[in-house]
Automatic annotation (TrEMBL):
This is YbaK/prolyl-tRNA synthetase-associated domain protein. It holds the Pfam family tRNA_edit. GO terms for molecular function: aminoacyl-tRNA deacylase activity; aminoacyl-tRNA ligase activity. Residues 49-168 form the YbaK/aminoacyl-tRNA synthetase-associated domain. InterPro entries: YbaK/aa-tRNA-synt-asso_dom_sf, YbaK/aa-tRNA-synth-assoc-dom. It comes from Streptomyces xiamenensis. It comes from the Bacteria.
Amino acid sequence: MRAPIGTFDEARPAIECLDLLPAPVGAALRAWSGPVPVEQVLFVDSDPEKADTAVFVAAYGADLEQASANCVVIAGKRGGETALAAALVPATTRVDVNGVVRRRLGARKASFAPMEQAVEASGMEYGGITPIGLPAGWPLLVDAAAVELPWALIGSGHRRGKIILPGKALGSLPGVTVVEGLGR
């Protein structure tokens, strides 16, 4: 099957590629529900050395710049307690961590979680973290612009490979809150 965006050799339903995905992503795909059938969640193979957005776009198609969305893990602190959350924004923007995210989480302070903490807590690789399969109970903030994308390119949980899915699927992921202006 041909990918709906990008210049990939092949796209396959991600549910058929569970051996290429980390366990939490595979579990989320097996339990998939919502308005978009799981068969429309596609996996495309890619070089892990080209996982960063700018390099990825240069290698796999300029149309991916507007379709790419990045997921980051945020640590929100309040009263000596730290809680983790995730935020997904179009790759052409930056997450408003100290404004929108901090207020949404009710945190006194918010920052990007340290790499080791993000990797250990999510069960995914740094540079490949995806909103699919995040730990239960994590708030997931998704920029409204990402939900409006006809097709969104997101991480697969590993640096190798990406997931392509209709943007509207992002709005129905577990724990999601769609937020206007999350990315600036």
